[in-house]
């Protein structure tokens, strides 16, 4: 799920099968999960040219790379800080949306309880 969300946020969404194939390509311990070591392996394979051009991993590596010799260390730092900030902003929006949804659920539940209480009172007058 984390890989799916990351690929969507990078602007390269993948299908369920595509994600499974991405994991399978670097899954050294065959647990169908990406460890940090396996995640780093993506970039090692990309640097060595071992990833298929049409694979999701190649897209991930290409979207997440920066040439330090061209940009310099400060440029690379800015690049990664901007990526982190963008992820944090989208996470904040997701949190706000979830909070709004929870508030709506709470209001709907309160309305339901008020209606039930009203019907109970109404039935005493019949």
Briefly summarize what is shown:
With 126 residues, the protein is mostly helical. Helices cover 77% and strands 0% of the residues. GO terms for molecular function: calcium ion binding.
Task: Explain the overall architecture.
With 126 residues, the protein is mainly alpha-helical. The protein folds into 2 domains: 1-64, EF-hand (Recoverin, domain 1, Orthogonal Bundle), CATH 1.10.238.10; 72-125. The protein has 5 helices and no strands. It has helices spanning 2-9, 16-26, 36-48, 56-63, 68-124. The protein is elongated. The mean pLDDT is 78. Residues 14-49 form the EF-hand domain. This is EF-hand domain family member D2.
How many structural domains are formed by the residues? 2
CATH superfamily membership of the largest domain: EF-hand
* Rg, Å, rounded: 24 Å
Q: What would you call the structural class?
A: mainly alpha
Kindly, what is the distance between the CA atoms of the first and last residues, rounded to a whole number of angstroms?
55 Å
The CATH level-2 architecture of the largest domain is identified as Orthogonal Bundle
Low-pLDDT stretches are none
Strand content: under 5%
Order of helix and strand elements from N to C terminus: HHHHH
Label this structure with key terms.
single chain; 126 residues; mainly alpha; Recoverin, domain 1; 2 domains; 5 helices; 0% strand; elongated; EF_hand_dom; EF-hand-dom_pair; repeat
